[in-house]
Structures are given as structure tokens and as C-alpha cells.
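Reviewers asked in the last cycle whether our approach scales beyond single polypeptides. To address this, we selected a multi-component target totalling 571 residues and predicted its structure end to end. The input consisted of the following lines:
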Amino acid sequence: MPFLNAMPGAITQGIIWGIMAIGVYLTFKILDVADLSVDGSFATGGAVLVSMVTAGENLYLSMFCAFLAGCLAGLATGLFHTKFGIPAILAGILTQLGLYSINLRIQNDMANLPLSYMKYKYPITLRNINQSLVICAVIAVLLIAILYWFFGTERGHSLRVTGSNLEMARANGINTDNNKILGIVLSNGIVAFSGGLLAQYQGFCDVNMGRGAIVIGLAAVIIGEVIFGKIFHNFALRLLATIIGGVVYYVVITLVLNFGMKANDLKLFTALVVGFFLGIPYWKNQISQKFSRKTYSDKEEVIENA
Amino acid sequence: MLEVKGLYKTFNPGSVNEKKALNGIDLTLNEGDFVTVIGGNGAGKSTMLNMIAGVYPVDRGTITIDGVDVTKLSEHKRAKYIGRVFQDPRMGTAADMWLEENLAIANRRGKFRGLNWSISGKERKEFKEMLTSLDLGLENRMTTKVGLLSGGQRQAVTLLMAVMNHPKLLLLDEHTAALDPKTAKNVLALSDKFIEENHLTALMVTHNMRDAIAHGNRLIMMNEGRIILDVSGEEKKNLTVEELLEEFAKLSGSEFANDRALLAN
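The resulting structure, written as C-alpha cells, was:
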């Protein structure tokens, strides 16, 4: 059963991309901003990790620097968006494009860099998939715990309000520009961190490794929502749903590859699936509007004795 | 408490869409003043409130709140001094956050938001008491998403959020215009109660002349970006809608044109 044998690997990759998808969740779901810089910052994370480790730096320090490099990329997008007034999508595309050159520089003008397992003995690797799976799962749980704490703080709350209602946020003294920047910085930091994880797992980094990351991230977010949206209401569980969404995505990919789909067709397959699921809320809305033409305020509970 | 001097604002200057919204507004509010604002379509009522709140930068003029010159302060920095309720009930609250979370956000207006827990147990108790005083049964729905409340309930909550930490100035921008008549009446009564209990200084834009006369201690009428009438005290109490319309025609040389006001009166 080649399919079952491939499962632990698919799950591990799913968790790594699920961690990436949590970064996408922060911008797309919480801040209500579609940030495309992640395609670039994912590769940046991988590039920083591999080039630092091969230069003899400590692995953990290298992972931290990968995170910081992603934060910087996010800062660029955040500034483009808030201080230059560029729409978020375009700001992300600009960063993504610029990062391509930066990533090549980090990789010393090579399109990809190998990370020799024999030489550096890092813990997350294709050579020991079960161990990698456990470590990645632990990292995912830790990340969820940290974010759960953060979004329970005053600052985290103000980030949620910024995404939910800009006018109300400002009227209540929240600096929405700074919060958007902070959210995009954090998001890209997480994305770059997961890029570092993937570079370890596959044993190399590639300047194109982030291509389509935003779409895979969205796929994970949406799959998580479709499966668990009705039962997971707690914030930590919603993040967990995103990780599981990433895992489901990779399991399905492994499945369709086993059924004979060409690997080169995968991106088309993903784009169509994500496009379809993104359309669902719109269609739902259209259908419900057809059946009832109701405005939001009238006819509902009238205030008594106010 | 509030001092507006020589305030000018032109939108889209130099284009075909140029609109002179404010043409030299001078307005001083004493502490405890509750001023109602009326005027025709495009008179600049909402623009004036938005300028005071800092939504747009001013072209010319100064705005001082309680001795602090806020003219150059950004909207979120000014929020420290100002509580606001908008016309659209959806605008004043975050729909996909809980009721208690919305209240906690308002409770931190003007304070630094750090890494402390977003709602304390003590706050929860206080919020519960405040909601109980609204008498809408909301005290049992603290963990309901605000988007699930009715328009009137949301407007009552926004009002509570606007006054809960005693702002220097309360801005009500046609905050009952989107509600049905009965709900509008109740929200208006609630506004009166809050303003009186907390001794707030308030500006209330309304399209309803009767309301403008019945509420507050002072009334101003605007036309083409200017204040054309300012009455207070006994004189204001004795006003009638007919007198106001006459006064408007005399001062502006035109008919009072406000679609909603004509329908409402």
C-alpha cells in the first residue's frame, strides 16, 4: 500500500504548511487583509535557515533569524499598505517581487541550496519522518498556545477589532495603521518560520519554494473552516482547524497523485478547488437574498423601557 | 469644554466635485451643554462632527477640547476625549466580537493597550451592572456576538460604550435615524439619561425638529457650512417647528430642504 506508507510524510508536510496557513489566517481572517507577500517570505525563511546553518550557525538561532527575516518582509508590506496607501494586495505583490531578488542574494545567487543532513544532523528531516511529525506537531501546538495568549491580551484584542470594524476601532482610540503593520509583521514571521521548517524537512531551500503559498494557506484555512466551522468556536480550536486543514490538503494531494494525477497539474487543481470554496459564501448569500429581502434593523426585537 | 474657531473644509478642491462643506464655523460649548444640531441636506452637520472627531484634517481653523488643542491630533488620539455614536448601528460595534469584548475595547479608549488580559473579572461585573441598567436583558448575553443583536440594541450598546468612561465630549450623529420610531424614541430617552447622569457635554445631530427642540439646552441650525441660528435656555424651550422653519427661510433665503426632516415632521 504505497498510499498508506506515504501518510506520515503527507501529514508532516501538512502540519508545516498548516503552520504557514496560521500566518495566512492572521491576515486573511483576523485583519481582513489579503497579504500576498507570503509567497516570498516563505522562501525567505528557507533561505535564511539554510544559509545560516551551512555557515556554521546554531540551528535554533537560525530558525529565530528566519522568523525575524519574515517579520522584516511583513514590515515592508505593512508600510507599503499603510504609509504609502497602496491596496494590501498590491503591497504584498510588490514585497513578493522584491523578495525574489533578496532571496537570491541570501542564497548567494543560487536558485537552491542543499542542507546536508549528514553534516548538520538537524531534527526535522525526511530521513526520520515519524520524529519530524512529532516535533512539527509540538511546534504547532506551542504556536497555537502563544497566539491564543496574545489574542487574549489588550493588544491582541485591538488587532481583532481593527480587522472587524476600522471606524469603530479608531473611534475607540486604536491606531489601526500600527495594528495592521503589527499583524502583517507577525504573519510573515510565522510564514518564514514554517519556510525554515520545510527547508529542513526536504533538505534544501529553493527560491521558488513559496510559489503559491498564499493559495495553499487559503486552502488550509478554508478546509479547516468547512470541516470544523460549525463545531470549533474557540480561537485556539480555530487555529487547530487550520493546521488540520493543511494536513487534509496534503493527504488529498497525496491521494490524487496516487490516482495518477500529474504533479505538474497540482497547482491548477489547487487553484480551482480554492476558487470554488472561496465562492461558497457568496453563493450562499445570493441564495438567501433571493428568498428574503430583509433589512438589518427593523422588525427585530424593539427596545423596551430604554 | 469645546471651542471651534474659524473652521473651514472643502472636499475635492479644484475639481468639478468641489464641495465647500464648512465655511467658517465658530462654536463654543460650555461644560454640560447639550446642543442639538439641525439643518438641510448638505448643511455640514455631519462634516462638523467628523471634523471635531478628527476623521478628516481641517483646511483652516482650530478645535480645542477642554483646553487641549486637538486640531492636529489623529482620530485615534482624539478618541481619548470623545465618545461617538453613528447613524449606522453597524458602525459603532464590532459585529463578530462578543458583547463583553466590545465593552472592554471601549473601556480602554485613550489608554495604552499592552499585554494585560483583555477583560478583567472586575470589569465583567461592572459591565453586567451597566447592561442591567439598560433593561434590555443584555446582561445575560455578554458572550453573544454583537452582530446578532437588533439595530436598536446595538445602538444602545454603542451609546453605553461612548459614555462609559466619561468622555469630555459626546458626539451623536443622527444616531436614531436608522431605527424604527419606537426604538428611536427609546434610544433618545437613553441618551438623555446618560448625558444627565454623567453631566456630559454633547452635540447631537438630528433630522427631527421636534426632537431637536425637546432635547438638550441649546439648538443650532446650520446652512451651507455656517451656523445661522443659535438659541438656548427659555427661548429654545418655547420654539415650535413652524417658527424654526420660518426662521430658516428668513435667515437662509430659501426653503428648508431636508428630505428626512420633511417626512418626519
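Residues 295-306 of chain A have pLDDT under 50 and may be disordered. We regard this as preliminary and will revisit it once experimental data from Aim 1 are available.
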